[in-house]
Amino acid sequence: MAAAPAPEVLADHRGNPRPRVDVDLDYEAARLGMAFHEAGHAVVSMAGGLHVLTSEVIAWENGEDGWSLTGKTEATARSINPWRFAAQCAAGEIANVQYLMAYGLWTPERAFACAADHDRELAVDVLAGFGYDLGRDRAPAGGKSWGMVRGMARRKVGYLWREIRTVAHAMAERDKLTGAEITTLTGLPNPPAPGGAA
Fold first, then answer.
1. What is the CA radius of gyration of the chain?
2. Which of 24, 75, 152, 189 has the highest CB neighbour count under 10 A?
3. What distance in Å separates the CA atoms of residue 185 and residue 166, rounded to the nearest whole number?
4. Mean pLDDT for the chain?
5. Whose CA is closest to 35, among 173, 180, 160, 172?
6. How far apart are CA 169 and CA 22, in angstroms?
7. Residues 6+ apart with CB under 8 A from 113
8. How far apart are CA 156 and CA 142, in angstroms?
């Protein structure tokens, strides 16, 4: 494990520190859970039309508890259906919960710890910028609720579970994967990047 990442890596899209959550899993199980979270974002992004640059798990030693984990997936798009963007935001926590269930680690407390409010708030803000209403706890007139978006993500995660699992295990082993590596692992095409960048 390395030293703590720069504060901007630990911040949400608004620049606020992401909340810290304690999980009652050992390091390897928690690290694999974070890899599933990021793999959920990356694979559902690719399937939804986003160009994935990188996806990674970041681990570091801290003075209090021994270690901390976070992750980061960078993706971009020329244009994408806003609800597909929202679904990929929700796919991280859905894939993490699915990992707990599939590996016999699920408890209500562990599932609750998978909630990624920063991903929800990113979706709310990005969609609002394009004139779409995404409600946190209800469906606004003409829009959708976060619960509806999570349902969309759950279907995608179920359909793409083999690919997500493959990417998660590779990411847990290597820390960071490029979009090209994810394509090689899964056979999913990585949509073109804006401006034709690789």
1. 16
2. 75
3. 7
4. 91
5. 172
6. 22
7. 21, 22, 23
8. 23
Give the C-alpha separation, 165 to 74, whole Å: 19
Helices 117-129 and 146-159 cross at an angle (nearest 10°) of 110
* Antiparallel, parallel or unpaired: β 51-60 and 68-76: antiparallel
What does the block give as tokens for 161?
């579970």
Residue 3, exposed/middle/buried by CB under 10 A (0-12, 13-18, 19+)?
exposed
Between CA 92 and CA 43 the distance in angstroms is 10
Output the pLDDT for position 122: 94
**Contact between residue 135 and residue 146 where contact means Cβ atoms under 8 Å apart:** yes
d(CA 37, CA 137): 22
Hey, which residues does 144 pair with through a beta bridge?
Answer: 134
Residues of the chain under the 70 pLDDT cut: 1, 19, 64-65, 196-198
Contacts 24+ apart (CB under 8 A), 137-144: 144/83, 144/86
Instruction: Please name the residues in contact with 9: beta carbons below 8 A apart, sequence gap of 6 or more.
Output: 58, 70, 72
Q: Are 71 and 57 in contact (CB under 8 A)?
A: yes
CA quadruple 77, 37, 168, 150: dihedral positive or negative?
Answer: negative
Beta pairing class for 176-178 and 51-60: antiparallel
d(CA 161, CA 98): 9
Longest dimension (CA), the chain: 48
- Res 157: pLDDT: 98
